[in-house]
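Table S2 (text version). Query chain:
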Amino acid sequence: MTRYTPPTILQRAQGLVQRDRARQQLQKQTDKGISKYGQTLDTYPGDYATVLQHALEEAADLTQYLLRAADLAPDGHMQATLMCIGRSVARDFDDLAWLLDVEAEAI
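Corresponding C-alpha cell output:
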C-alpha cells in the first residue's frame, strides 16, 4: 500500500497560478531557498507568528516594487495595469498587517 504524501507548499502554490512563467518563478525561488538556507518552506522551523511576519515583510517589498515599476512603465496602459496590481497587493498587505495586529492582541 502506498503512503499518501501531501503536496508541498511549492506544488500548492503552483496550483494557484495559471501561467508557466509564474510556476517557473515559484520553482526558481524554491531552488534559491534550498541553495541559500538548505531547506524549503515545508521544513522551515519558524512558528506561525514568525512565518506571518516574514510574509508581511515580503508583501511590503512587493507593494513598493510594483509602485516603482509603475513609475518606470514605458506606456500609460502598462502603468495603469501595474498600479491596479500594486493596489491589490497593497490591500492584501494591509489585511496581513491587520491579521498580525489581531494575533498580537490575542496573546
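Notes on Table S2: The radius of gyration is 17 Å. The chain has a mean pLDDT of 93.
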